[in-house]
User: Fold these one by one.
Assistant:
Number 1:
Amino acid sequence: MAKTAKQASGPANEAWETIKSVGSVLLIVLVLRVFLFQPFTIPSASMEPALYEGDYIYVSKYTYGWSRHSIPFSPPLFDGRIMGKAPQRGDVVVFKTPRDNRTDLIKRVIGMPGDRLQMRDGLLYINGVALPRQAVPPAGRIGYGNDLRFTETLPNGKQVQTQDFGPDGPLDDTDTFVVPEGHYFMMGDNRDNSVDSRVPPEAGGAGFVPAENLEGKAEFVLLSWKPGSSLFKPWTWLNLRGDRFFHRLD
């Protein structure tokens, strides 16, 4: 009987050791995801030309501190941010959209608390001043035909490339937006193909984004696949954009 009991305990001990090993790995992954970094896949062209559909990006979770949205499923454990730091104008940021506090979006920080923003004939005005921009020739892939590209200079001197269809799109003329304290105004670089802070949450947009909803700063592109490709579809692996590997984001 003692021998039988010993034999029975062997598989049980082995199963328990496996469970502990798997649990340790999952705990490490969770800690890394919450505190350090998280990968995201870009599902649309709203941030072209900075990000293409199919880019697989690295997002730092520590740059702006941590909130409940840093944790999977955004549990209501606390309010605000721990060791919070304000983003810089022009940062590319992943955040939870305020309309449901679940959906991840990625846009560029354009408006800071207290700013007044407006689009007029396709030009962006911040605090009554039109942002300088210069037309640039298209380079590489452009997602939707003969889009126009510009180098736009933000008030802090940061230059970003934007892309749009022309000055008469539905989001090229807007009312004036005044950014509340503790919130940010987000815009996609692909100005006529981005549902961002110019669109209110009740209409499916982002609206003003609370600081608490920031998840992290997009740092660089790890890998990039052409649309329709996937890491889980080995037959599509040759559809890689090799020139975008480890591409640093502005």
Number 2:
Amino acid sequence: MKFVFDLDGTICFQGKALSSVIVKALDELTRHGHDVIFASARPIRDLLPVLPTHMHAYPMVGGNGAFVAKDKNIISTVHFEEDVKNQLLTIIEEHDLKYLIDSEWDYAYTGSEDHPIRRNVDPEKRANLIPLASMGTIIKIVLLEIQGAEHQLILDKLSALPVVVHQHGNEAILDISPREIDKWSGLKKLGLEDQSYVAFGNDANDLTMFQHAHTSVMIGSHKELGSFATEQSPADEALIAERLLAFCKQNECMKH
């Protein structure tokens, strides 16, 4: 069986690397013949630092589906079309918005250095922080520190564009991807089929991968995601690891 894991808030907490208890449980899954896949809002560049080195070659979906990687190579990226990119940049300029913008590998950032999202961006200096003006293709945009009435105004403007927008809990950020890009679209590029995998997630951007999963395990509580979850677990690493080990015990009936 294939197991697909969101990272932040699901098996990775407070931006820290996977804990030893989670790593051991994932290793036990692979030892029993299961495949482990990661699917995150992070670009591939920022997935790697929270994973142990021996998992860097695992299949990955990054940027909520905009990046797909396998065997340490990015095999697919989807960028904003030029006219859409220009309209997004106009919105950013008109409202003087702070942002994290990713190209295929490098990034542009104008948020504060102590913003929680900043510590997760390229901590191992694998990429370059570049001016937005010198960036060619844009794969993903995160708008930061949007407050009050401006939040709804920006949402309204984005709704007129062919893009996918995710909001994460009560954070004052908007996560923007090209149209028809989501985690399920990325998983399909890795060859996954409908109802062929177990999904673990915790937020609205996990919705499509839950809809197509054989079994879906929601970590914590999320109203919208809960409608598609077959199970729920507290955001407790020991309990999550316990559930993974229980899957291992069911190995004979779950293996292909």
Number 3:
Amino acid sequence: MKHAAANGSLDLIKALLDAGADPYQADTKGHRAIDYLLGYGPTPPNSRLNERQRQRAAQWLF
């Protein structure tokens, strides 16, 4: 889920959530998928998504 949030399309993020992926699972440093999506984790914000798409994905992941 974290990799998709950091690099995936909006459709991929939604498909993983619909399939039961846990958006709250954290990595070893405590970063969750939303952190990866918005660039608060070890990666910059998801560059495949525009601002509106990132906001939509953030609502799903929060």
Number 4:
Amino acid sequence: MSTGTGPDTTAPGVATPALRPVRLPRRWLLASLAVLLAAVLLGLTVGPAGLPLRGVLTEIVDLVPGVDLAGGLDDRQAAVLWQLRAPRVVLGLLVGAMLAIAGAGYQGVFRNPLADPYLLGVAAGAGLGATFAIVSGGSRLLLPLAAFTGGVLGVAATYALGRGVGGRSTNSLILAGVAVAAFLTAVQTFVNQRNTDSLREVYGWILGRLLTAGWGEVLTVLPYVAVSAAVLLAHRRLLDVLSVGPDEAGTLGVPAARVRLVVVLAATLGTAAAVSVSGLIGFVGIVVPHIVRMLAGSSYRIVLPLAALVGATFLVVADLVARTVVSPGELPVGVVTAFVGAPFFTLVLRSARRTW
């Protein structure tokens, strides 16, 4: 039977199974979108300054050109919604989606269920860059730039070291990432010890937070997340091919080294942008892809798009918990994701050999 990609070489009389493309299950897509919408509405309405659901929905519908409904929010409530609450929720959507899809991409190219977006040193590099910005008394605009630059340079150093000692081996890249992360963390610790008056702010950034002052952070991270996510989604079929191994993928015409490089670069760019405005929020890149894989299937044509939706939902809900559970105080959102992710990580360790 011909598959439409070349001549039919099947021996006469020998039956072959039909090749069916893997498609995103509609029920999981609709369920993910419904839960995401509910999380967004909760994020917009719940907080120290509670907002009525009907008023919030009216304000959103009023954004449609030509629509002007009565019964919206008053001026104070509208300011809370559009200047504080909405930017924070949208930032959570972007960061959560990016970390989740980057984690899925890393797991695909390294064929390792424990891989996450911070595997190759982006977290250590971003942390060092942010530390330098904080202790130097830089402006609020300098911190994201320093964190982004540090994250990219950290991964570049990992690639340079890995290629120098082990060629194109994935194991050499992983070991290089461990070495680079350890070195950058040591430098960060030294800087912190020399500037103890800045420790509180540094650790506040390291623990992760979604603090916004308008739409500036959203506009900063949006282009990077959009480009990175588009590249990763475009490579989802190739990640399925890589799952059989680099040598086997090569026999199928897939350049494993080039695909790995493109996926890592895209995931690194998006992750560095995300952590530059949110700090180091852990476990999203591990927890979310595994949840999707257990529920909807292991094909990356399913995992990547659903991971983006579930990751966005997960971080919006985690941030909602972080800013309400100790109200009027606030927990770092990274503490909430770690509270959920650490037990899940233990389960992954126990079941990885059986499920990967």
